[in-house]
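P.,

For your records, the input lines for the assembly:
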Amino acid sequence: MRRTAEDERIEERRRGPIPAEVDLAIEALVNDIIGKVADKWTMLILEALEEHGVLRFTQLGRAVGGISQKMLTQTVRQMERDGLVRRTVHPVIPPRVDYELTPLGASLGAAVCGVWIWAETHHAEIEQARRAFAAGRTVAEGVS
Amino acid sequence: MRRTAEDERIEERRRGPIPAEVDLAIEALVNDIIGKVADKWTMLILEALEEHGVLRFTQLGRAVGGISQKMLTQTVRQMERDGLVRRTVHPVIPPRVDYELTPLGASLGAAVCGVWIWAETHHAEIEQARRAFAAGRTVAEGVS
DNA sequence: CCGTATCCTCCGAGATACTG
DNA sequence: CAGTATCTCGGAGGATACGG
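Structure tokens returned:
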């Protein structure tokens, strides 16, 4: 996802700071949150931590699978910033850092879980729709 | 979203269709679906159609807000392909095309709605977490 | 082991112009 | 009006190397 949420807010401000637009401000924030949540790695990390509870850095990376260190750090930092995960540093040698979901993160996990379940429930329908679409889309759609 | 982890699994599947990996194949598909759903424009279009019911191309564009024709076409096509929206072409002049959610799309809308509600419910906590994070993790200084 | 810093690639996505 | 085609560009994100 590209940086678009900020742009929207900036745009909004540019268009006119109408006093009664507090709701819109919140809407923008919510939009921003959606943008964050709608990130692939965020969702996968959420799932990994939901399933395994507490994980160390590399463990988390392996649990997610196919993620670069950069993205792992970056995403997990963002999640920490948003209060979704708690990061615990153990000042020992070798270094050890534990990651786990906060209650807030867990609640998000529950919400996202709904989407996940939807995907698992309806993936067959989607596959079917894709095949139907690929088969022939020149099929006349009746104008009711 | 860049093509990364799924590609590997898809590749894996292409290289060798091992029977016992059907679960992994489905998991990959579900992952793919999540990736699709986790798209900003998809979610916004979903919301727009959920709220307005049936919309024409430009109406949909305006309802979403800040989307280019290209992305609108592209995203809506993908959604049509996945069976989430139905596209109805009226062979009249001037051309007219209607978009609306399929039952499948509506069910996804319901699931995503849960995440939306979560965002609306917890945005204050996230803001607070962000402030706390920005303030510094050393000492919890009261934010007046 | 846990990151941060750097480079580099590549594709998402906007703008524009054109067709049916 | 509804799309397609083409160009361009920013920046997301992978790979790598190094610091603590």
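Two observations worth noting. The longest helix of chain B spans residues 103-135. Residues 1-2, 4, 56-58, 69-70, 73, 89, 93-97 of chain B lie near DNA strand D (CB under 10 Å from a C1').

Regards
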